[in-house]
C-alpha cells in the first residue's frame, strides 16, 4: 500500500508542476489548506508527506465549504471528505475520479472508432465514439483500464494516469500489430474467443473464450474438436484425427517449442494449461512455409507476449485438478509469468475421476481382478510453465520460456503365496515432456524485422512392468531429444505486402530400449537426424484479395535428400457476401510413432516415438488441396470446403491394426477426400452452429492382400450441433451434440475364428475393416456464472456434463484367443465415457 501511495504521489508531484501552466499563481497545497481552515474555521486531517509536494491554484473565496472541497477533489488526486462541520480528512485511498481518453493509431494519430475499453475487475466497458473518445465516471484510482482494437497491440493503463486537472482527455496511442496482413475474418466463430483468420486458420483466444458444450475451461485440444474435419475416434486428445490423419501427424508447438506429449490422463485432458495461453492457431491446409513436420495439421500455441506492468493472476479447482497462475511485473521492462497445475486425484477420488479412470484403464491389467491377487493403483499428473519477458528497448524484445508436463502411475499387486505368506510387486509408468525456448525479436527499421528462435525439447517415457504370472520384469524407455534454431526475416515494403525469408535447423535424437529379466533380453536403439531448411514466402492483402505463396526446401543430411514443399493460400471476395478460397500444400514428417502390442505397459501405453530410416520407416510426405466457398451476411457464416489429401510413407506398425496385419511390417499410404460444411449464426448474446463432414479414407499397402481397405479412422458422416447463449450479463449456457458413424473394425472368420501359427494360436481375422461399430452419439452441456467478489477479484463458477444422456458408445472392438478354448475368440469392447459431470471454481484478479 505504501509503495502504491508513493507511486501515486510521485506522479502527482510531476503532474502538478505541469498542470495549468497559465497566468494564475500556484501555491503550495499546505498554504491553501491553512487559508481554508481560517476561512471556514475547520481543521484538515492529513499526512504531511501526502501533500508536501503539491501545488494548486487557490480556490475562489466566494465558494461554500462543500464547493471548496469539490474543487480540491477535482484538482488533485487526493480524496477530501468532510466528516462534519469541523473536520475534513485528506487521504489517498477510496478515491474515485472521472476519466476521459482519446484512442489514436500510432501511424498518423487518427482516432480509432469502436475500440474496446474495459475497466479491469468490474463490469464497466464501452466503445470509443467517432472521435476515438471514451469516458467513465467514479472509477477508483488504483484500477487499470484495458484498451484493444483489431490489428493493434492491446494496452493497459492505470486510472490515475488519465487524471487531468483541466478536464482534458488524455491521448492514448495504440501500436500497430506486425501481423496485420492476416486479419480476423470472423470475430466470433462458434463461441466467443474462437476466431477465423483470412488464411483459413482458426484461432482460440483463451482470455476471451466463452464456453463449449461439456467443457468447464478452454481446454485447448478439446476445443479444436468442435471444428469440421477434426475428430477423435476414441474421445482422446492423444488421438486427434485431422482430415483422416493420425495424432502423431499433428505438429504441436508451445511458444515455438515442438512438443511430443499432449495429454494428461492418457489423453482425456489437455496437458497445456490455458490460463497463460494467449491464442492457439490451428491450420489444416495452406500452412505458412515457416512450418513443416506435421503432415495433417499445425497446432501453434502462443502465450501472452506483452509487458503490461500490471500484477494479476488467478487460481481454480475442479474435480480432477487445481491450478494457479501469476503475471508479476519486476521492472518497467521486465515481467515474469508463471503457472502450475496438479491433479487432486491422489487426495480425493471424485465421480469424475472414477469415470476417467475406468475409461482409461478398461482394457488393461489394472482393471483385471482375480482371487489370487489384490491390486492398487496411484495416478497423478502435473504441469508448469514460466515465461520471462524483457523489453530491451522500443525495438528489441527477448523472451524465455519453460514448460514441463508429467504423468505418473504406480500399480501394485499383492499375491497370496500361501495362508501365511504374501508377495508384493510394483509396476511404474512415467511420461515427461520438458521444453526450453528463447526468442529475440528485432525491429531494425519500420519495414524490416527479424526473429531468432531457439528451443530444446525432451520427452521421456519410462516403464517397469512386473508380470506376476510369469515372474517377468519388463523395463522400457523411449526418449526424444530435439534442439532447434530458426531465423525469420520480415520485410514489409508497404501496408499490403510482407516478404518472409528464413532458415531452420533441427537435430533430433531418439532412444528406444527394452530389457527383460526372464528370459534375459536387451535391445537398445539410438538414432540421430539433422535437418536443414530454407523457406520464403510472400503475403499480400488488399481490399478483396488475400494471397500467400511460399516455398520450403528441406535437406536431410543423413540421407542426402532434398524435399521441396510449395504452399499456396488464396482468398478472393467476389461480392459483399461471397468469397472463394483455394489452399494447397506439400509437407513432410521425419518422426512418427509405432504401436507395440507385444511390449505395451499393462495394456495402457503402446506408443513409441521413432525416427525415419528412409527405408523401413520412410519420410512421410503429404499432398493436399482444398477449394471452398464462403457466405457471410448479418452475422450468418456458411462455409463449404472440399479437400483431397494423400499421405505417403506411413507404416503398418504406426496404425494400430487389430486385424491380420497387426504384427506386419510394411509401408503404404492413405487417401482422404471429402466435404466440410459449417453454418454459424451469431449475435452479441448467442451463437448457433451446425457442422457436417463427409469423407472417405482408404489405405493402400501393395504388399497386403487386399491392398486397399478402409482406414481405421474412416468416419464417413459426422455431424455436430451446438448452441451458446448469454442468458444474462454474467450467466452463459452451451448445449451441443455429436453424431457420427462408428469406426471400422475387423471380425474373425465365422466358423473358423482362430488359426495356428507355429506354436501359437492367433485370431483368424476376416477382410480388414469390413465392419463398422454402431453410430456414436453424445449430448453435452455447460453452464458458466461469473460475479465479483470485490472490485478487483472476479469469480467464475462453471459446471459441465459430458454424455448427459449416458448413452453407451463403443469406440473400439477387437478379439482375443479364448484361453479356455483356443478354437474360439473373446470379443473385447472399449466403451466411451458415460455420464461424466465436472464443476470448477476459479478467481481471477
Task: Kindly describe this structure.
- There is one protein chain.
- With 845 residues, the protein is mainly beta.
- Mean pLDDT is 86; it is low at 1-23.
- It contains six helices and 54 strands.
- The strands form twelve sheets. The chain has a 22-stranded antiparallel β-barrel. A seven-stranded mixed β-sheet has the order 13-14-15-22-23-18-19, with no helix packed on it.
Q: How far apart, in Å, are the first and last alpha carbons? A: 17 Å
Q: Whole-number radius of gyration?
A: 31 Å
Tell how many strands the DSSP assignment holds: 54
- Give the overall average pLDDT: 86
Total count of helical runs of at least 4 residues: 6
Outline: globular
Strand content: over 45%
Structural class of the secondary elements? mainly beta
Oligomeric status: single chain
Amino acid at each position: 500500500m505504501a509503495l502504491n501511495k508513493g507511486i501515486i504521489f510521485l506522479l502527482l508531484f510531476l503532474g502538478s508542476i505541469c498542470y495549468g501552466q497559465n497566468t494564475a499563481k500556484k501555491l503550495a497545497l499546505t498554504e491553501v489548506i491553512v487559508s481554508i481552515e481560517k476561512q471556514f474555521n475547520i481543521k484538515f486531517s492529513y499526512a504531511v508527506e501526502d501533500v508536501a509536494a503539491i501545488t494548486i491554484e487557490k480556490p475562489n473565496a466566494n465558494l461554500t465549504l462543500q464547493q471548496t472541497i469539490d474543487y480540491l477533489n477535482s484538482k488533485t488526486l487526493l480524496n477530501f471528505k468532510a466528516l462534519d462541520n469541523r473536520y475534513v480528512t485528506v487521504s489517498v485511498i477510496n478515491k474515485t475520479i472521472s476519466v476521459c481518453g482519446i484512442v489514436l493509431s500510432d501511424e498518423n494519430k487518427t482516432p480509432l472508432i469502436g475500440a474496446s475499453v474495459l475497466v479491469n475487475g468490474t463490469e464497466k466497458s464501452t466503445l470509443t465514439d467517432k472521435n476515438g473518445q471514451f469516458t467513465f465516471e467514479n472509477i477508483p484510482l488504483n484500477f487499470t483500464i484495458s484498451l484493444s482494437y483489431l490489428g493493434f497491440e492491446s494496452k493497459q493503463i492505470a486510472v490515475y494516469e488519465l487524471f487531468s486537472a483541466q478536464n482534458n482527455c488524455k491521448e492514448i496511442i495504440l501500436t500497430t500489430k506486425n501481423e496485420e496482413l492476416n486479419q480476423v475474418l470472423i470475430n466470433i466463430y462458434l463461441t466467443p474467443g474462437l476466431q477465423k483468420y483470412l488464411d483459413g486458420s482458426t484461432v482460440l483466444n483463451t482470455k476471451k473464450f466463452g464456453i463449449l458444450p461439456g467443457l468447464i475451461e478452454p481446454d485447448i485440444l478439446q476445443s479444436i474438436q468442435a471444428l469440421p474435419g477434426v475428430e477423435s475416434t476414441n474421445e482422446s486428445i492423444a488421438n486427434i484425427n485431422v482430415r483422416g490423419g493420425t495424432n502423431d501427424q499433428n505438429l504441436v508447438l508451445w511458444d515455438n517449442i515442438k512438443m511430443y506429449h499432449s495429454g494428461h490422463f492418457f489423453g482425456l485432458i489437455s496437458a497445456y494449461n490455458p490460463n497463460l495461453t494467449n491464442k492457439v492457431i490451428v491450420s489444416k491446409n495452406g500452412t505458412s512455409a515457416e512450418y513443416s513436420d506435421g503432415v495433417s495439421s499445425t497446432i501453434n500455441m502462443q502465450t501472452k507476449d506483452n509487458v503490461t506492468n500490471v500484477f494479476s493472476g488467478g487460481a481454480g479447482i475442479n474435480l480432477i485438478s487445481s491450478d494457479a497462475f501469476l503475471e508479476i511485473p519486476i521492472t518497467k521492462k521486465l515481467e515474469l509469468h508463471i503457472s502450475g497445475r496438479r491433479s487432486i486425484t491422489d487426495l480425493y477420488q471424485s465421480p469424475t475421476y472414477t469415470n476417467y479412470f475406468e475409461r482409461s484403464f478398461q482394457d488393461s491389467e489394472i482393471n483385471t481382478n482375480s482371487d489370487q491377487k489384490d491390486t492398487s493403483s496411484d495416478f497423478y499428473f502435473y504441469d508448469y510453465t514460466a515465461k520471462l519477458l524483457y523489453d530491451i528497448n522500443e525495438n528489441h524484445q527477448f523472451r524465455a520460456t519453460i514448460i514441463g508436463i508429467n504423468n505418473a502411475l504406480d500399480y501394485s499387486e499383492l499375491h497370496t503365496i500361501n495362508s501365511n505368506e504374501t508377495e508384493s510387486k510394483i509396476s511404474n509408468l512415467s511420461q515427461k515432456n520438458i521444453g526450453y525456448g528463447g526468442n529475440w525479436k528485432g525491429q531494425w527499421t519500420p519495414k524490416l524485422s527479424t526473429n531468432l528462435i531457439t528451443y530444446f525439447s525432451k520427452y521421456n517415457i519410462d516403464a517397469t512392468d512386473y508380470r506376476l504370472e510369469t515372474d517377468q520384469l519388463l523395463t522400457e524407455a523411449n526418449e526424444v531429444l530435439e534442439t532447434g534454431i530458426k531465423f525469420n526475416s520480415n520485410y514489409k515494403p508497404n501496408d499490403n505486402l510482407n516478404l518472409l525469408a528464413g532458415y531452420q535447423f533441427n537435430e533430433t535424437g531418439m532412444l528406444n530400449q527394452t530389457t527383460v529379466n526372464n528370459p534375459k533380453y536387451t535391445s537398445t536403439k539410438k538414432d540421430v537426424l539433422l535437418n536443414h531448411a530454407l523457406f520464403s514466402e510472400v503475403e499480400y492483402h488488399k481490399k478483396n484479395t488475400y494471397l500467400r505463396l511460399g516455398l520450403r526446401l528441406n535437406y536431410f543430411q543423413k540421407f542426402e535428400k532434398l524435399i521441396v514443399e510449395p504452399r499456396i493460400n488464396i482468398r478472393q471476395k467476389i461480392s459483399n457476401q461471397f468469397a472463394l478460397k483455394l489452399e494447397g500444400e506439400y509437407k513432410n514428417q521425419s518422426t512418427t510413432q509405432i504401436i507395440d502390442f507385444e511390449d505395451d505397459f499393462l495394456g495402457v501405453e503402446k506408443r513409441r516415438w521413432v525416427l525415419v530410416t528412409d527405408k523401413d520407416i520412410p519420410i512421410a510426405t503429404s499432398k493436399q488441396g482444398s477449394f471452398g466457398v464462403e457466405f457471410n451476411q448479418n452475422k450468418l457464416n456458411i462455409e463449404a470446403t472440399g479437400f483431397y489429401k494423400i499421405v505417403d510413407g506411413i507404416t503398418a506398425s504406426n496404425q494400430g491394426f487389430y486385424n491380420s496385419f497387426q504384427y506386419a511390417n510394411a509401408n503404404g499410404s492413405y487417401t482422404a477426400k471429402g466435404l466440410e460444411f459449417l453454418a454459424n449464426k451469431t449475435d452479441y448474446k448467442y451463437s448457433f452452429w451446425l457442422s457436417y463432414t463427409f469423407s472417405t479414407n482408404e489405405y493402400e499397402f501393395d504388399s497386403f492382400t487386399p491392398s486397399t481397405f478402409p482406414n481405421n479412422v474412416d468416419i464417413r458422416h459426422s455431424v455436430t450441433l451446438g448452441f451458446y447463449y448469454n442468458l444474462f450479463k454474467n450467466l452463459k449456457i452451451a448445449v451441443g451434440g455429436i453424431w457420427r458413424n462408428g469406426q471400422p473394425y475387423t471380425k474373425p472368420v465365422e466358423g473358423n475364428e482362430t488359426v495356428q501359427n507355429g506354436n501359437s494360436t492367433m485370431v483368424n481375422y476376416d477382410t480388414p475393416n469390413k465392419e463398422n461399430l454402431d453410430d456414436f452419439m453424445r449430448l453435452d452441456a455447460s453452464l458458466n456464472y461469473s460475479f465479483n467478489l470485490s472490485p478487483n477479484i472476479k469469480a467464475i463458477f462453471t459446471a459441465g456434463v459430458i454424455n448427459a444422456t449416458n448413452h453407451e458408445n463403443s469406440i473400439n472392438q477387437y478379439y482375443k484367443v479364448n484361453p479356455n478354448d483356443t478354437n474360439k475368440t473373446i470379443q473385447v469392447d472399449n466403451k466411451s465415457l458415460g455420464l461424466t459431470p465436472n464443476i470448477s471454481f476459479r478467481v481471477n484478479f
